[in-house]
Amino acid sequence: MMKKQNILLIYSGGTIGMAKDSDSGTLKAFDFDSLLVKIPEIRLIDCNIETVSFENPIDSSNMNPSYWEAIARIIESHYNRVDGFVVLHGSDTMSYSASVLSFMLENLEKPVIFTGSQLPIGDLRTDAKENLITSIQLASLHNNGIPIIKEVCLYFEYQLYRGNRTTKMNADHFEAFDSPNYPTLAESGVHLKINYEFLRKEKFEDDLIVRTELDTNIGVLKLFPGISEPFVESVLNAKNLKGLIIETYGSGNATTEKWFISQLKKAIEAGLYIINVTQCSGGSVTMGQYESSAHLKAIGVISGKDITTEAAVAKLMYLIGYNIKPEEFQYYFEKPLRGELKEN
Ligand code: ASP
């Protein structure tokens, strides 16, 4: 008889496990045991489920690198014994966390599936049950004991996505996430439909390595018509800034005004990494396609290609955290390390 899969549920917080505070009426996280009592159905899934919870579950708006490290360390300490992981997480910053964890977990060969919900588990119309139950089922899929999913994913409202390709695009709909530049990995309908061709398939020689050094001295600057010189200058001169993502227009275009280019050039010459990410929700940066991006390429701006801002934030913190040599930085940023951007 095939042995049952062991799945570890990690509860970090989020709406899924929240209840209305009787005094203030606001939603606050409550403890994990109460959450499980609300979904007796998960006991019916054909796998062994273990649970670990943050001591104080958080609203994911409070997510930060120390919590990311905590999730990574929980995964590391159970990795050899457990077949798959489901991380319950608030939806607000779930795409950031899934992106960061994809970089932290090097040589990952087991599923790590982030999920959560738009309505609390206790709500009559909750989306939490389906999200949680299907995530557990996806995490336990295997072929003769070998996991089918071997990457960090995000499951929400019938779709399984590559985590570092997602973005939260709706605050109200159950369908809260999208993966504009990479196909869904699986769809849940009457049957679970796995899109095998889009899954990561690497086999690694080495064991899991958990990389938790992140440097948070980075920033994001969204361009808009009329952006002023003093504002750009103050951002570029922010204390200790080491990396800056500029969200540009269309395929990576920006104003060609002289002051803008010379400010950026000066910052790059002083050692700042500047990454070009489009503010469009889909598509890619192609520097040089228009005159309004050729100048960025010429001064050494790095292309984010089709990466999301969330994954760019994660990758920038990660690469700076590991002190990648300046002469190699562009190469590593523009190369897909965990399937977070396109190859060419
Ligand atoms: N504010 C909540 C959080 O991100 C929203 C959610 O869980 O969906 O923790």
Give average pLDDT, whole number: 94
**Rounded Rg:** 21 Å
**Tally of helical segments:** 9
Span of the ends, CA to CA = 46 Å
Number of discrete domains: 2
- Order of strands, main sheet, comes to 4-1-5-7-10-11-14-15
Bound molecules: aspartic acid
Biggest β-sheet strands, sense, barrel: 8 strands, mixed
Can you give the helix content as a percent range? 25-40%
Global shape: globular
Strand share of the residues? 15-25%
Quaternary structure type = single chain
**SSE class:** alpha/beta
CATH architecture identity of the largest domain = 3-Layer(aba) Sandwich
CATH topology of the largest domain, anyone?
Rossmann fold
Instruction: Return the string of H and E elements.
Output: EEEHEHEHEEHEEEEEEEEEEHEHEHEHH
Number of strands: 20
Q: Name the CATH superfamily assignment of the largest domain.
A: L-asparaginase, N-terminal domain
- Please identify the top-level CATH class of the largest domain: Alpha Beta
Would you kindly provide a written description of the structure presented here, covering whatever features stand out?
With 344 residues, this protein is α/β, with parallel strands linked by helices. The protein has two domains: 5-210, L-asparaginase, N-terminal domain (Rossmann fold, 3-Layer(aba) Sandwich); 218-334, Rossmann fold, CATH 3.40.50.40. 27% of the residues lie in helices and 24% in strands. The chain contains nine helices and 20 strands. It has helices at residues 32-37, 65-78, 94-104, 128-139, 229-236, 258-269, 291-298, 309-321, 326-334; strands spanning 5-13, 18-20, 27-29, 47-58, 84-88, 105-106, 112-115, 142-143, 146-147, 152-156, 159-162, 167-168, 177-178, 186-188, 192-194, 209-210, 218-222, 243-248, 273-278, 302-303. An eight-stranded mixed beta sheet has the order 4-1-5-7-10-11-14-15, with helices on both faces. Strand 18 (243-248), helix 6 (258-269) and strand 19 (273-278) form a beta-alpha-beta unit. Helix 3 (94-104) packs parallel to helix 8 (309-321) and helix 5 packs parallel to helix 6 (258-269). The radius of gyration is 21 Å and the shape is globular. The termini are far apart. The model has no long low-confidence stretch (mean pLDDT 94). Residues 13-15, 59-61, 90-92, 116, 118 line the site of aspartic acid.
